[in-house]
Amino acid sequence: MTTRHTVAPKGQGGRGAYRTIGEAIRAASPGDLVVIAPGTWTENLVLDRAVVLTAEHGRGSVVIAAPPGEAPAVTVEGPDCALHNLTVWGADAGLPAVSVAPGAGLVLEECSVEGGRVQVKGPEDEEGGTTALVLRRCRVEGARLAGLHLAGSVRARLEDTAVTGVDGTGVVLSGTASLDAVRLRLERTTGSGVRLRGRSRLRLTDSVLAGSGRAGLLLEDSTEALAGETRIEAPGAAGVHLTGSARAELTDCRIRGAAASGLVVQETARLSASGCSVADAGANGLLVTGSGEARLADCRIDRSAFSAVHLAGTAVGRLADCRVRGGSEHGVHATGEARVELTDCGITDVAMTGVSVLERAVATLTGCRVAGAAAGIGIDSAAGSTVADSTVTGTREIGVQIAKGGAASLAGIRISGAGAAGLVVDEGAEATVDGGWVEDCAGSGAVVWTGARPEVTGLRIDRPGKNGVFLAEGAGGTFTALDVTRAGFPALHVAKGADPVFRHCRVRDCAQALGTDDGARPVLEDCTADGTPLVFGAPAGAPAGRPAPGAVPGARADRSAGPAGSAGLAEDGEEPAEENLEDLLGELHELVGLDRVKQDVGSLVKLMQTVRRREEAGLPAPPLSRHLVFAGNPGTGKTTVARLYGRLLKALGLLRRGHLVEVDRTALVGEYVGHTGPKTTAAFNRALGGVLFIDEAYSLAPALAGNDFGTEAVATLVKLMEDHRDDVVVIAAGYPGDMHRFIGSNPGLASRFGRTLLFEDYEPVELVSIVEYQAGQHRYELTPTARAELLALFESMPKGEGFGNGRSARQVFQEMTERQAQRVAELPAPTADQLISLEAHDLPHPATR
User: Which candidate, 112, 210, 599, 719, has a CA 20 to 30 Å from the CA of 59?
Assistant: First the structure.
């Protein structure tokens, strides 16, 4: 039978009340209840038997405080002990406030532990029994070193509990400890959020780990973790970090804003993730090194500062039905002897190559899509990669490249809208192509360089801007059942010393069927051009042995990077995510400087809102041109604002997609008569539903135009702007003085570009702000002296033709980090502060700028 013991100050509690909690505990039998009156009780309590302590008037009314200099406030030595509705104060934040001894058991319910950790020790191994801990609806706050520490054979469960404000690690598990946490909220730790060591185990469900100073979840040694429906927000290092032989399984988790990589797998660790997302990582979205292995299914990795997925060493990455969106480097980057398998994955809008394979790495792609990258797929490894049933669309440069010394097999691949050549087989590379389609490339459909001899079967090449197939000097290979249609240059161009074999190939509707240089040795077997047999040295619609004017130089230029033409395009059939107008305006106002531009854009948004409301009310819209001129020097944020303007119009419902297509003269102007109109139209069509941003637009109207094809591009643009006036916004950008000449070059431009936004040069203090923003993004800090000298550097920096405004600020930051890295590398054991500090002598000398 349970006996109730009352604890109250003298004069309260009635007859038989105890004056201290310790007295009541010593008088209690196992299973008894100790009820405590409101107040602060300064005691060291020892619970050596199964008793329950509870506050008489509920949570917050009773405080148990350890005497100064003594800890802990509560020591648990017996089984089945419990504290209800109590607040426990530790005497020292670095020591335990609540300590549970080996073999004991404690339940904390509706309790707060402040100024010290909850420490639970179990036997060294499970044969010695276990220690039990349960926290329900509790709060642990203000500890140092750790908020909750479970060591040895411990079995613990947390429910609806918060661990916050810890100067160290939030939760530490070591030995064979096991923790089951449901709806844990862990916030503001200077160390990792949760750290596992030894052979400990963690199950984390419906929880939030926010604002940790280091990794959100750190697994070491032979630990294991299962995490489901958990969010890891803004950790100071990796979101989830596995080392040693650790294992982790993540389901429906969200990792956002990690200062380093979102997911890190090192040594022999293994990670499995399903239905998870990683966004805004300060380094890689997923980093796998050593002999680590990661398996991801139905996951998303968005906006990584480095490559979204990076594998090195002998690491293995297997991704199925995953999406990569945005990012400052590659979508997937495999180096060393790593192996990456991508199945039904999509990679969109990365700044560099969609999939890059280097050194001895191997990639296997099946049913994948790459869109809007600088380049689609780059294979530099000789280890033999395979790409099957995959598509590459809208790249700014080459679609697929097998680089020098690389080896790859392509089957059923589709390359569309590449800004340069569709497929490039580089010098000495090995490639087999079985089926597939290359279409609408700005350069040649396929380029084969010196010494390369690919085996190509059943490939269709349609509407290439230059040659269908271009073979450089000394190239070769076998091309069977090849179809080339509507090529702007000779369908097949064979350079000196090249000896390809073409079997059962068809050429249709091309400017010329075959172009050859002196010394070319092509072999044509059962080939036709528009139904007529194609024979080397004989006419076939046009002289077979003579290339069309300009064909050879144009094709040779395909090896260089193509013009920017499709940045910001979403994957085929996908619309950009809906965005909030207020958030977008907030993003605009967060930009450094540009006060006048911000005001102008804000006014435009208000005007557009009124137009939209009138249309929704059935009223006629006032005459309005949404097209703009951005006048300013390089690096003043024109492209950034243009991209944001498109997103704003999308949020207002005035554009379908709001994406940005960035082009320049090379993307619009052709090299011969009749080429410019289709080229300009193709670029314009990619921008339908969004914004066409024409950089250096004045180059379309040179001061001494003569017969320049730029005037044709301008005329084509004017007509297209009229035909699609409600479905596209055109922004013409360039130097302020030159933009007047551009607007005056065609009568239709002045009526369509009714508003000019002036982007003024950044002031020195604003350039410093840009550097500080970059530093914050990459976890660096400027010392006060460095900031003062940086301001002086920008004040003295020449503002001539080579000055890049914001670009110059970013270059200065990069140089500072490089100089700092060299300096820190010479320190024997640099501290954390030294690793992040940018000092005055890290600034570049003015003479080097």
Answer: 210
Q: What is the pLDDT of residues 698-723, one digit of tens each?
A: 888 776 555 567 788 888 888 888 88
Closest by alpha carbon to 235, among 216, 221, 254? Answer: 216
C-alpha separations of 212 from 135, 218, 520 in Å: 21, 11, 65
- Kindly give, in sequence order, each residue whose CB lies less than 8 Å from that of residue 441, ignoring residues fewer than 6 positions away: 399, 415, 416, 417, 418, 419, 420, 421, 422, 463, 464, 465
Contacts of 353 (CB under 8 A, 6+ apart): 330, 331, 333, 373, 374, 375, 376, 377, 378
How large is the greatest C-alpha to C-alpha distance in the chain, in angstroms? Answer: 122
Phi-psi region of 355 (alpha: psi -120 to 50; beta: other; left: phi over 0): beta
The token pair at 151 is: 């060591």
User: Rounded to 5, what percent of the chain is helix, strand, coil?
Assistant: 20, 35, 45
Least confident of 47-51, 261-265, 374-378, 692-696: 692-696
The answer to whether 752 and 796 are in contact (CB under 8 A) is no
Q: Which pLDDT does position 539 carry in this prediction?
A: 42
Instruction: Judge whether 416 and 439 are in contact, CB under 8 Å.
Output: yes
Phi and psi at 208, nearest 5°, equal: -130, 125
Radius of gyration of the CA atoms of the chain, in A: 34
Comparing C-alpha atoms, which of 7, 159, 134 is closest to residue 80? 134
User: Locate tokens 């995959």: which residue?
Assistant: 390
819-847, pLDDT tens digit by residue?
888 888 888 888 888 888 888 888 886 64
Look at 539 and 564; give whichever has higher pLDDT: 539
What's the pLDDT score for residue 623?
Answer: 64
- Give, for 601, the enclosing helix (H) or strand (E): helix 595-616
Which two three-digit tokens encode residue 419?
A: 């800004």
Residue pair 565/739 in contact by the 8 Å Cβ criterion: no
- State the amino acid at position 734 in one-letter form: G
d(CA 56, CA 47): 19
- The token pair at 657 is 């997609």
8 Å CB contact between 446 and 415: no
Neighbours of 126 (CB within 10 A): 14
Please, what is the end-to-end C-alpha distance for the chain in angstroms? 85
Distance CA(706)–CA(696), nearest Å, equals 19
- Residue count of the chain: 849
Dihedral sign, Cα of residue 393, residue 395, residue 398, residue 403: negative
pLDDT above 50: residue 367: yes
Position 673 scores a pLDDT of 63
